[in-house]
Amino acid sequence: MKPYVLNCAGEIEMEVVNALRMAQILIRARLKTARCVVDATAGNGKDTLFIAANTPADSTVWAFDIQEQALRKTRELLFQNGFDSKVRLINDSHAKVSYYIGTAIDAAMFNLGYLPGGSHAINTQPENTIAALSQILSQLVISGIVTIVAYPGYEHGLTEMAEVSYFLNQLPQKEYCVACWSMVNQINHPPLLYIVERVSENTQP
After folding, report:
1. Residue among 73, 33, 78, 74 nearest 57 (CA)
2. Are 89 and 42 in contact (CB under 8 A)?
3. What's the half-sphere exposure (Cβ side, CA atoms, 13 Å) at 202?
4. pTM of the full predicted structure?
5. 3-class SS at 56?
6. What's the DSSP call for residue 84?
7. Distance CA 10, CA 195 (A)
8. What's the mean pLDDT in 44-72?
9. Contact between 63 and 90 (Cβ < 8 Å)
């Protein structure tokens, strides 16, 4: 789906999008030829399903979550839509991503915070998020994309966003291109989207 529509006069009208929708818009083109994609935060399975539906039939999708409740919901959603066979569900921290995936990674999605409808006491942790990002970025192919949606609207989310932002700001610009997208006139500190694209290999000895 395009991020715009044509009105009856043939003029372009932008759709209203949020950080989650924009992440999907920006990563979709890369998924069409992807062989290995990571959903680092399976949650209720919506991003996992989006990835599975937009990648080639022979690609592998890895979905991580520490909560069995989340993986159960993700498994059910994938089964209902016929994509359960191409997704590997991992009941473990995304901080261990390189333990499970030894190949190159084409794209990855992070949706930080807590499980919608679950306990607000169980959140993604900054140190684990940064560990996962570090591993994925080191295995990311040239032109590979990573999206991270962060939630500064509550205390833990604000802290995690700040630490993730600091980490991303330190990435070498010759190797990675990092951008940030947000709604600027929304109240209550709306989610922020970070986008990372790998543009070259590490040339340091």
Report:
1. 33
2. yes
3. 8
4. 0.89
5. coil
6. G
7. 31
8. 95
9. yes
